[in-house]
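Q: Make up one entry.
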Amino acid sequence: MGRNRTTICKRIIRLVLLFVSFVAFGLAFGHNQRASAAFVDMPGLDVHLWYTANGNDTPIISLKSTSGPLIYMHSLNVDKYKDLVAHYEVTNNTGKTQGVEPILDLPMWSYYPDRGYPTSLIFDSSRTGELKGATENNQGGGQFNLFYSYDKSTYVPTLDSSKTLYAVMYNSKPSVYTNLVNKASISVSVPLKLITDDYPWDQPSRVPFAGISDMTFHDPYNEFQSRAIWITPYRSPQVKDFTSADYNTLINSDKYNGITMLLNDQTGQQSTRYSVPIEEPDHTKATVDSITPTNTPGEYTVTYTYNGVTKSVKATTTNKSYLDGNDFTVNYGSNWDSQKFNGLTKHLDASGNAVTPLSKDVTISSIKVNGQTVNSVDTSNAGATYEVTYSINGASKTVKVTVGNRGATPVTPTHPVNPNPITPGNNNWNPTTPNKGDGSTGLPNYAAVKGSAVYSVKKIYMYKHATFKKSQRIAMYPKVKRINRPMFVIVGYDRSNGGALRYKVRDVNHGTKNAGKVGYITASRKYVLNVYYKTMPKNNKITVISKNGVHAYKNKNLTGKTKSYKKGTRLKVKKLIKHNLTTRYQLSNGYYVTANKKLVIHEN
């Protein structure tokens, strides 16, 4: 049915002015006003307004005419909710076919800068593909199409992204009612974005609100029903770069200094004022996810998370002293003092320069076991784990030191304090300081890590010196089956006069005549390989090859034995786990088994 366009526009303007008056003057707007001349709800003609974000279809703010107020106020974190979409739906539950003319007013409709009522959201023309109209179950009803208003008075069928979009109509054509059969529904979706990011986010009450409202005209009343959602955007957490005196101060008392404001949603307001977010004064309610050094000495990336939003800032220390380190294992019954600094991997002075040796002027400020402070690591306390804290000039680093089990294969740290540089052609080479500025050894990438286990895959000899001579052979190791291959632990490195890399090793083949011998073997990958797998099997399956089978454990340190698997058992693995200088496989049942190549093998 046709109606006078001027009359409709007057009613639309009337609603807008009424909404503006609510905000400006705080007029009451309750359910008892539905019987007013302008607002007439038709029973069973149900309206739903809602917002979605982040590409998710779940509503983040929702208002239904069947259960909610006429106006719903809400604040919204635009750091958490991005790619906003406003939705409008009309469902006919009147029991009969109903003529309707649905209109969705966008935030810019109530944008009157000369009156001091700015808005914060606008149609996002970069996401026009998300501007949609849809009809469901309207067989036998009318044909609905999208129409657009750029001047608040007329509607056209063409979308023009270069113009400000004020409202969207979904109808057969403007100025008529279009039939919506019983149980049918129509919906409109419009993507929105911030008009600008240049708002005073640190003053949430000054950030302008934005409103969407529907104008659902219905026949025969020649009136309309309407609902509105008003939101106030805000950003949280709000952060900034900061400076701290030194590393210890940064990671302790200053770690929250990058947070300037935390805010929470103000929800469910039905009053006539717009909603302002609530400030959380306790910044420790946020989590400090990490404090990570950058490649610039004295500069760190501090990452915070609050209410599902993660942000990072740059923290700079005046004193650039820094220590880093790794957890390591000491042998049962070994001398603690000779290896107490073996956990250090990096040392920078107050100016940010690398220090060698790494232990220079470093002190051990704390040693704890089971929460109790002790004076030293007791290497006779098999299996115990100590927390050792290194300190120097406002910097500290805590590492875990584990004492090996009695009779276990010795394991030494990944990063020795004084790694020996490789100097080809020097038969007497035995330096005590690194030759690299970063403290590295200069070893090739394929070289096995000091302290790790290797085994020979072909016949090899052990020699007294790095330059091999037949007269200086200590032991011979023949080529044998995989499960019997001789194992060695790397205790150092050297090169022959010709520059060939050698491993200085200790024989750990217990019960053999050569057990405990120390000497040099080739580092060629044709003859010597890592004992432990470094990769996952291609089909995620391994087979037990040890004649004694293997045990499965609850923990990755192979404690808490649960069951045993016989030789030939096929096991499905889901993850390779590093543990100190060895590896484990985590099975599909969650238990752990060794990744020792003498005990298990990858299936092809």
About this structure: The chain is about 5% helix and 40% strand.
